[in-house]
Amino acid sequence: MLFKKHLLVLALASATALAQAGTAVTLYKNAGCSCCEAYIAYLKSAGFSVKAENAADMGAIRQRYGSANAASCHTMRIAGYTVEGHVPVAAIKQLLQKKPAIVGISVPGMPMNSPGMGEEKPGTLPVYTLKTANSQPTTEFGRF
Ligand SMILES: [Cu+2]
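Above: inputs. Below: predicted complex with copper (II) ion.
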């Protein structure tokens, strides 16, 4: 019975991984950013294929991708969207499913209850909409 349960878990895990195998992510970060590494591991465990690049000037990266006023420690590009900071996978999935006409989403700063930072308290982390390039994070995309 326990063995069967494990098989089921394995099957579900690989199905999730397969479903997102095509979801390629490019993540820009400073060299030596350990919470960035923790977030990359989190994305990989959720099945994303992550290409991490060290950037000398993260300010320029944020300016280019529209998250300059909602800054965190790393900036991702995924399916034409910008995802800034320690954003939960649930929010990224919602973004990719709904495909809203926005620049992207952000968790500004590095709040403790976000993936790769600390213990998550589901449903409490505000994720903000980047309405236009480098707009202020004033509208919540949702709480995750
Ligand atoms: Cu961080």
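The radius of gyration is 16 Å.
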